[in-house]
Give the backbone structure.
Amino acid sequence: MIEEKFDAIVVGAGPSGNAAAYTMAKEGLKVLQLERGEYPGSKNVQGAILYADALEKIIPDFREDAPLERHVIEQRLWTMDDTSYVGMHYRSDDFNEERPNRYTIIRAQFDKWFSGKVREAGVVLLCETTVTELLRDTQGRVIGVRTDREGGTAFADVVILGEGVNGLVGQRSGLRPELKPETVALAVKEMHFLPREVIESRFNLKGNEGAVIEAMGTITDGMTGTGFIYTNQESISIGIGCIVSDFAESGRTPYGLLEAFKRHPSVRPLLEGSECKEYAAHLIPEGGYNAMPELFGDGWIVVGDAGQFVNAVHREGSNLAMTTGRVAGETVVWLKRRREVASKANLAEYQRRLEATFVMKDLKKYRRIPDFLHRNKQFFGVYPKLLSAAAQTWFRVDGVDKRAKEKQIFQSFREGRTLPGLIGDALKLARSWR
Amino acid sequence: MMNTTEVGAAPKAPPVKVEERLFQNRYLVDAGRPHIKIKPHAEPSKALMALTHLCPAGCYSLNDKGQVEAVVDGCVECGTCRVLTAKTGEVEWNYPRGGFGVLFKFG
Ligand SMILES: Cc1cc2nc3c(=O)[nH]c(=O)nc-3n(C[C@H](O)[C@H](O)[C@H](O)COP(=O)(O)OP(=O)(O)OC[C@H]3O[C@@H](n4cnc5c(N)ncnc54)[C@H](O)[C@@H]3O)c2cc1C
Ligand code: SF4
């Protein structure tokens, strides 16, 4: 396909691949990037919240021209039953700062913008090109890739795999095991359009302020999963995701679950009168640290979702993708400067550098959480119902005295979950969180 | 093309048709070259059966011979069917050729 040899080939033009390609090209390396979509972003799905910090470390002045929707000033966490939600809302004018911390974005547009920066930095990007396999030399070292283009091979000193969660190249080359239905979530999402004034009045916003909602409870019908509602300028992103093995057992359809979420009495008024313009679905790797595959080998590095870099509890993924991409790029530049080869031993530097960042620290801290949430479905069904009933008992004024109400609430928790169950859950949660 | 309706939906909600949703999306269909194929089978495994409700694009359905069929024109390339049947190997899954398949405008 291309005769010249590159310093690096990057597979994928999502946040991880873009971060890696940009970092290397900025330092003068010759980089080829391959993307299977018609344009970067055409295959990608996200909620989407962008965390400024990770992008700032790559493109400090991104705010000048990135397609940002709204900066988040209000975070709502909802625990829902069929008719209610118990909410924890945090809104602060401090988030109306000069360099806001979180933004909502629309991924297809954001990826296109990021890719523009990558190409400006000198990266050769080929879209509509699917990488089909890794090429190796006689010692097994990765030396390039084969693509589905005619005569489609390309060679480089190192291949960076930013191919996302459903990363066939790495899986089929035996670099990492197959995904497990128990540790990967399927999320479906819709884009609902409304005039911006309507969004602003419904969510109590002005200008480019944004609000985001994360929801859990009976909306996932007993499955491990969550829902989200994010405000964009002229649209609302709404989605719901659950672990694939839970879905398989439940008999539910993902779109049926999303429809029920949209019809919830607390959600419906937010979407009233909107026009849905897209329906998307995507996997999210949620196995965390314990599901992490090998991250590097002779001539290759894996970054982003392909390496399971997602903190599901905090709904962080794109920032881990950008950070791992950047660190991988920096490692390759560092080796190049020292005139060292991209051997497995030398690429261990990638992991060493990652260990020093929030990425590995957070994933390690939460390593027990995915399994915990998968095994303790009461947090998605029983507890939300109990919480809602308790709130209703407490707030309803009906002639029952307050002490009796307290008793009633306590009793309902004991009945719903038994005392040892309650204590056990608290201990388990504390232990997993530690 | 697809005919999947919700099985155990919440009591109030009418059946949900996924076709109405996919209709909003843009696709470049690689005519005659489906990127997903089901291997011939007499009886579908539990995992393959699950896809008749699990596929977010409703691509899988049961035919009158009790076998599972797939029409993948509306596929959003999530990979769920590949992951779920990895053990049984009943689904042959590849990405569409470069440039083909779903085209998200928003994502
Ligand atoms: C519904 C949903 C909501 C989310 N919400 C958030 C959120 O609010 N905030 C957040 O930070 N994260 C969120 N995430 C996670 C986030 O989207 C991912 O962590 C992030 O996109 C990972 O980036 P990546 O570059 O590793 O992979 P991807 O973004 O998946 O990019 C991979 C790229 O590689 C290309 N590719 C794949 N295989 C090949 C091949 N063989 N040849 C050529 N190209 C190939 C793909 O087309 C794609 O462009 C969410 C995810 C989902 C699904
Ligand atoms: S990849 Fe996803 S959308 Fe496509 S057929 Fe499989 S499950 Fe359905």
Remarks:
- Chain A has a mean pLDDT of 96.
- DSSP finds 15 helices and 17 strands in chain A.
- The first strand of chain A starts at residue 6 and ends at 11.
